[in-house]
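Incident log, structure service

09:12 report received: a user says their structure output differs between two submissions of the same chain.
09:20 pulled the input from the user's history:
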Amino acid sequence: MKTLTCIALLFALVAPSFAADGLPAGFDDKTVTTYEQTVAKAITFLEGSRNPADGSYSSFAGIGPTALVTTALLRHGRSPDDPLLATSLDYLKGHIQEDGGIYVTGTHYRNYETCVAMVCFAEANDDGRYDKILKNADKFIKGLQWDEGEGKEKSDPAFGGAGYGKHLRPDLSNTTFLIDALKSAGNGPDDQAMQQALIFVSRCQNLESEHNDTKHAALIGDGSFYYTCATGGETKTEETANGGLRGYGSMTYAGLKSMIYAGVDADDKRVQAAKKWISKHYSLKENPGMADSGLYYYYHVFAKALSALGEEEFADADGKLHPWRAELINELAARQAENGSWTNENSRWLEGDANLVTAYSLLALSYCHPTKQAAGGGIEADGKAVESGTSGGRVDPRDVIRP
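09:34 re-ran on a clean worker, output below:
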């Protein structure tokens, strides 16, 4: 309780004085207070759940949870020099390999672990201290991507994608982590690896176009995204009666976000089709198409995608405008445990782990910060404010990132 009080005081000292005037859509003083209290409780929980011996979180699942937790804390204003974060960053640095990757030795999941670690180091890199680490890791993940160097022609459905590691079947979840990492290392939309990844992402959409002529593209045609276009999809449980691959919420938001990061225009038919599907299935009560499976992973990509889209309110199929930031804050606050953590009763994909799920929730909330907007201002794709006129035994990590 003492720590929580201190964090609340910190908010009072460093946060702007909010008022309903100039706040994002759907915000009022109560929503601002809910946001501050929810974040403060989550940080208090994570302070107590870190392994004090090495700064890790849930290390039985590899370094992914530590990278995600640390990124979330950094995005909520903690300094990389804060002792709480410094030990976690040192833990991640301890897994930097000679090949430039950042992963647990012997793991088959080098892409995922390196990508989430890169995003973390980039978040802590305001003074350039991690430039070399990011440069080496950038080269490493580009070497894992399925392209001509891996013997894949552009016509191959696997082209441009990324899997858990080298030579492992590519999927949309790993590819969206790849795109996040490329962006964090300073690669723009015109980067070759980014554009190759876009080819794969486009082929994971239920939309036939000049960007997607795979056998599944036109079978459903609803603009949703599914897990992988390689090897004909992942499981038969995702197939529809006509052999199509059923899309669902977390992958559709991940696909939308990835296209935007790769420079696809808002008027592009791929973006418009994804938005149409989302409008029909807008929900914060479930991961559409997956019920409560991967729900908190879904909340993270939901917030990240809508922030990248740049719409303060999102219209559902009935024309109702949703102030999604305020709605997400209130939904997460209602689901938060008394100790400040979140867990999913459906433990699929490791969402029974409080550290991982609390990281997802804090990351989602970082795109909902009730920053007072100046006239003509907005929220950048990374969630930061822009003022007007400024520029045990290890589990399979697939259980962590499969949604």
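09:41 both user submissions now match this output. Likely a transient worker issue. Closing.
09:42 reviewer note: The CA atoms of residues 156 and 230 lie 8 Å apart. Strands lie at 314-315, 321-322, 378-379, 385-386.
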